[in-house]
Amino acid sequence: MRSRKKIKFLTGLLIVFAGVVCSACGGGKSGSDKLEGSLQDMMASLYANADLVQDFRDTLDSYETVDLTDDLEISILGTDQITYTEGVVSMPMMSSMAYQCVLLRVDEADVESAKQALKDNADLDKWVCVSAETMLVESRGDVIFFIMCDKNTAEAMSSAFQKL
After folding, report:
1. What backbone torsions phi and psi does residue 125 show, to the nearest 5 degrees?
2. Residues 125, 110: contact at Cβ < 8 Å?
3. 44, 7, 27, 77: which is closest to 157 by C-alpha?
4. Rounded to the nearest 5°, which phi and psi values hold at 23?
5. Which residues, 6+ apart, have CB-to-CB distance to 155 below 8 Å?
6. pLDDT greater than 60 at residue 20
7. Angle at the Cα of 82 (from 81 to 83), degrees rounded to 5?
């Protein structure tokens, strides 16, 4: 009888210990998924680390990364209904290529609704005479990555974003 109580007690301790370990692991994952630093620095890191084709990389000196302002919201995001605390957009100043890359920092509780608003309102045909081939909307922690361009560039930039 005594050994049964010991087994039950030890089993209970093991379950509690396993729960503590699992919750600690889960807490560490979400903490490491949160991106720190300015969005301007993150955008620079994306370009530095993305596996971009040389022709695209050669045009980067004509790209500018600017803070997203109220004046730009509708033309860049397709909507002014997304609440964000920080936003930057990178795009060529003069180009015949359809391209924009956006990073938004939003309240973590609003990430999924903001991503859906981008998907619902993005216009791949907003450029004169050209269209973006694809759109990607992803997130890490409270940062949303939103890009419209050709598929290969979008995938290279997305990969760099996931490695931040």
Report:
1. -105, 20
2. no
3. 44
4. -70, -35
5. 136
6. no
7. 115
Q: What tokens appear for 16 in the block? A: 């509690």
Length, in residues, of the chain: 164
Report DSSP letters for 95-153, one per residue: -SS--EEEEEE--GGGHHHHHHHHHHH--TT-SSS---SEEEEEEETTEEEEEEE-HHH
Residue among 136, 163, 161 at smallest CA distance from 39: 161
38 vs 19: CA distance, rounded Å = 36
Residue 94's pLDDT is 85
- How would you classify the pairing of strands 134-140 and 100-105? unpaired
Secondary structure of residue 50 in the 3-state scheme: coil
> What pTM value is reported for the model?
0.80
Place of tokens 């924009």: 100
